[in-house]
Amino acid sequence: MSGVGKGIASASIGKILQSKGFEVTAVKIDPYINVDAGTMNPTEHGEVFVTEDGDETDQDLGNYERFLNTNIYSENYMTTGRVYQTVINKERNLEYKGKCVEVVPHIPEEVIKRIKIAGEKAKADFVIVEVGGTVGEYQNILFLEAARMMHLSHPNQVVFVLLSYLPVPSKIGEMKTKPTQFAVRALNSAGIQPDFILCRAHLAIDEPRRKKISIFCNMQDENVISAPDVLSVYDIPVNFENEGFGNKILKRFGMEEKKKDLVEWRAMIDTINKKKKKTVKIGIVGKYFNTGDYVLSDSYLSVIEAIKHASWKFANLEIEWINSEQFDKSTKDIKKVLSKFNGIIVPGGFGSRGIEGKINVIKYCRENKVPYLGLCYGMQLAVIEFARNVAGIKDANTREIESEGKNLVIDLMEDQREKLKNGNYGGTMRLGAYPCVLKKGTLSNKAYAVSEISERHRHRYEFNNDYKEILEKKGLIIAGTSPDGGLVEIIELPKTKHPFFVGVQFHPEFKSRPLNPHPLFVEFVKASLK
To answer: Is 367 considered catalytic here?
Structure first.
């Protein structure tokens, strides 16, 4: 079922095989008709993860990058819409040479082709393929058909892993295997027999239930793998290895490990789980949290993980979500809410909802010297706040909110005007990795310890250079620009005025890895601890 951990399980399997000396890549299949994740609502789908080459993808590609410590590219992401679009375009171009193009076999064949291309580009020994959705859903039948066809043509090169949830009803107090049995039957009906079952549950699976799954799901006991809740998702590869999962997979392929090396990963886990003397409290101010009666932290998954990576060595971490809409019209309680935090992050976003509340939070951080990190929209709103309350431009705004405003300190990028005019929204933002030159002696320059960086972007609006001179005169530091100086990438306040106030036009969270924390987040955490 959704959210039970398929992406983390896939990434963990990849990490284990990588640690045994193999080249590994991972592919995510989303069953949506959307061509990419860029037009999906974050509170429905979760975070949109941007790849180095500018693809808007599912957040699980971020999991793959973090666990495998490598870049994953657009070839590794497919949706139903993307696959169908390609097949239809091929048909229009007569690439099927007049054949009747059918859902089967042509759609599954395109899926298989894409999996192979991803593996070839990465020069991978293993391609981990995660099929989104739930077994038995109409949406992913064609992807399961592709998997069946791959196994038919390459029986010794394909292994199936089913991840299934085993509930423990609170009034019964016993782990139930029946849903997993039904899941396997549903998978069997698609022509697939799982080689392994990962048993997701609150607790580790016991022997009687392991035996029951073995008998009713047609597999050996040893291939029923326990996957209980753990303190950190980064514990999961170690958990799987404790059951010898990696070598069991290699055995199915008739292969042996080249080396055994989760040493660095295990050392990292020790650091994560070790209790620290200090605690750092970080507030994330956003508007994509609430879905009905529940909080969806997945909307800002990479931001959360980046803070975790940065804090592990220094402190215990407490994160709290703050809905910016509560400060839209009144700042009466702003001190009461924000004074308990050591640092505040305003992440990316779109539209006008909750924006005045975010600006009021930024004003509080600036005036009260609370460490502040603004990401993308968080940087743009910091510029607006500074323009209004320091430079005296009271009606300063962004064209995204006030299209005919007089003082638009944030304006639409020139190449975006025609795109928006024609309603061309999907995949048309400034996307992917771009270079940025850092100003010597700035906080950002100190954090990165280099003069030029490359970071990933996802935006249509930018700092309006017509206001550069007046804002700099009032004390705003332009700490990073595009190499030609045309695009402002980083703004700061001087260290003499504020301990840490940084806004970046890009998304540094996408490049943070557990073994390589992002330098900006590290400096932000250090400042917050002080």
So the answer is: no
